[in-house]
């Protein structure tokens, strides 16, 4: 334990003034907005480190961190563990909104009355069946009902958590915000809401309009902004700052505030999409062969309709033997939480050197860790027994992981240990129809095929996600990611044809993904892609997007 005034950011990191103030805030609620790459997740990790190591969050009180995606929740948990160690990090509950809702339902289920009442063995499925089954979308509203109507449940939550983090808050829906208010409005808990008002991409899911303003008013929160993009080299940051000057002048830095010559911005002017594809193949070979950039650190980002605009490029990649992964392809198996869970489990069973993978699995299996010591002990015991028993059978060749039946047996044991309801909570899609079962079957088939190639099982399974491959995706899909080299094809007026402010924000997301190299391409001509509807307008003759390309001048 250290005193408040002796705390400094762990790992010797330097936080910008507003981030440092946010990390060390003791009394006030905060509404923190930040641009891409501004270190929002790192700020939350440092704030958790400050609260736990200084005793501002005293034992046995806990920190609740709510994210929108399983990966984001696990990432924050891992960062906090690296910052302050496993013992203190065990007092951080990093979960998604739906996982938090289900936790409340499981703990206070008897508080649900009448039509909402649930049996002890209730399921999460594709339909609402009175007393027996709820849908994924019911978790948050039912949790709100519990907290609203049951003083014991409300007090238990408030006594458990002294601090609350709300990540990617711009995407908070009406139901989710209502749950936050029921749990913590008027309590002594200190809330920190973090997000980017320029990047709300979930309006279709009911995202609140002006949620930051609403939160600031309801919780009397202090508004703060983070501006620095720490992932990018200086030349790239200067280009980004030039855009900030146009989009939000008060948020921009002075011209001389970003110094250094590291980083590079290239503009490639080409005749057509075939020449563009050939130039990008040569560029990627240069990055890999002469600069030793891993393929997984290279991304190609499109402003829209990647499946059409990337046709020539993927054909060129196939001919050149360059592995790639199309992130925006519908139902991309490798990006599914259930597929990641299964592959991680198989990695633990087939290799002794998967400590980080095992820890990641435990974070999901032990999602309520620290809430009930006896239950934690039993759950961990069952988990360890399951892993040890299956590992022994795999090593003894009693289980053949190239055999579909044996793989199904292993996955069935995993599902039984984790719990189907917990798996359903990983994604809204899993609560509908046979989506989850189909993904499990697809993952089993894919894993069996990879292992059956004769390579080391751990190596084969590690290739499942296409990690050693160029990533191709939309700029929206790239939100929250970062790469050593980023390529943005088609910086043309005819590509960014929507409302200027919206297109500007999308482009800003794209350029801020790059850490060291940003490549912008434009063509004089683009042929209509195969499958692009004939009744949709298409301009073959192309002109440069003057504004977007001009921002690159600031990188010099």
Structure in words:
- The chain is of the alpha/beta class and 556 residues long.
- It folds into 3 domains: 189 residues, P-loop containing nucleotide triphosphate hydrolases (Rossmann fold), CATH 3.40.50; 178 residues, Rossmann fold, CATH 3.40.50.300; 130 residues.
- It is built from 21 helices and 14 strands.
- The strands form 3 sheets. The protein has a 6-stranded parallel β-sheet with strand order 3-2-6-7-1-8, with helices on both faces.
- The longest helix is centred in the C-terminal third of the chain and has 23 residues.
- The two termini are 47 Å apart.
- About 2% of the residues have low confidence.
Features:
alpha/beta, Rossmann fold, 3 domains, six-stranded parallel sheet
- Alpha carbon gap, first and last residue: 47 Å
Instruction: Supply the CATH superfamily name of the largest domain.
Output: P-loop containing nucleotide triphosphate hydrolases
Query: What is the CATH topology of the largest domain?
Result: Rossmann fold
What is the C-alpha radius of gyration, as a whole number of Å? Answer: 25 Å
Quick synopsis:
With 556 residues, the chain is α/β, with parallel strands linked by helices. The protein contains 21 helices and 14 strands. Strand 6 (161-166), helix 7 (174-184) and strand 7 (190-195) form a beta-alpha-beta unit.
Topology, element by element:
Layout: H1 17-24, E1 30-34, H2 40-53, E2 62-67, H3 70-89, E3 92-96, H4 97-108, E4 118-125, E5 131-135, H5 139-149, H6 151-160, E6 161-166, H7 174-184, E7 190-195, H8 211-218, E8 222-226, H9 234-247, E9 264-270, H10 273-291, E10 298-302, H11 306-309, H12 311-320, E11 324-326, H13 337-350, H14 355-365, H15 373-395, H16 404-418, H17 420-424, H18 435-451, H19 457-462, E12 470-474, E13 483-488, H20 500-511, E14 514-523, H21 546-550
Parallel strand pairs: 1-7, 1-8, 2-3, 2-6, 4-5, 6-7, 9-14, 10-12, 10-13, 11-12, 13-14
